[in-house]
Amino acid sequence: xxxxxxxxxxxxxxxxxxxxxxxxxxxxxxxxxxxxxxxxxxxxxxxxxxxxxxxxxxxxxxx
Length: 63
What we know:
Helix content: 25-40%
Shape: elongated
Structural class: mainly alpha
Mean pLDDT: 78
Radius of gyration: 25 Å
Strand content: under 5%
Number of strands: 0
């Protein structure tokens, strides 16, 4: 006996609804990415390590 690949956890799904979800999932799995996005290099990390920061920062400072 085989187990189903998709299972409805809550509620009741009609066979047409399960078939539609299956078709969408299979189409997404088969899709090829169109192009890899170009990543721009950052000169430094976008986050700060607080242990490397100075102890006091003036409230009117920009950094």
